[in-house]
Amino acid sequence: MIMLILAIRTDKEEAELELYENTDQLQSICWSAHRELAETIHFKIKNLLEKQAHNIHDVSGIMVYEGPGSFTGLRIGISVANALADGLSVPIVGVGGEDWIKKGLKRITKKENDHIVKPKYGAPPHITQAKK
After folding, report:
1. 3-class secondary structure for the chain?
2. Can you give the pLDDT of all 132 residues of the chain as single tens digits?
3. How far is the C-alpha of 88 from the C-alpha of 125, rounded, in Å?
4. Contact, 93 vs 63, CB < 8 A?
5. Fewest CB within 10 A of the end CB: N or C in the chain?
6. What is the pTM of this model?
7. C-alpha separations of 49 from 13, 22, 54 in Å
8. Are the C-beta atoms of 6 and 87 separated by less than 8 Å?
9. N-to-C CA span, the chain
10. Cβ-contact 84, 6 below 8 angstroms
């Protein structure tokens, strides 16, 4: 059975999207998202899929880089990944580390499903105290 897998990494200023057919990479894009990640990620996903003659409904699994990394970048990328997985009713896996793609492909092709991925920032959050 063929799986079309979308990989999302948004932990740094350059965001990355990759598209796989099972474990074979079809396409990848990297762009300087920086402060425009929320405004560009959906457009970039659509373009990635269209370049391979696919649409969002063809995606059968999602893997997302869960951290460590930028608070805002991880939050946006993981929120998009969770929303897509839920809306499409497809499995999602969160993976970290340098070999996250390899580990993620192994998990997703084995039909593993985290259902909801939570970010791992790599450090405790710095929360300011509310002013009275």
Report:
1. CCCEEEEEECCCCEEEEEEEECCEEEEEEEEECHHHHHHHHHHHHHHHHHHCCCCHHHCCEEEEECCCCCHHHHHHHHHHHHHHHHHHCCCEEEECCCCHHHHHHHHHHCCCCCCCCCCCCCCCCCCCCCCC
2. 789 999 999 999 999 999 999 999 999 999 999 889 999 999 999 999 999 999 999 999 999 999 999 889 999 999 999 999 999 999 999 999 999 999 999 999 999 999 999 999 888 766 677 777
3. 31
4. yes
5. C
6. 0.92
7. 22, 15, 5
8. no
9. 59
10. yes
Instruction: Identify any residues that bridge with 35 across adjacent strands, giving them in sequence order.
Output: none
Instruction: List the domains of the chain with CATH numbers.
Output: 4-109 (3.30.420.40)
Residue at token pair 């370049």: 51
Name the one residue in this structure whose structure tokens are 């990479």: 25
Tell me which amino acid residue 18 is.
Answer: E
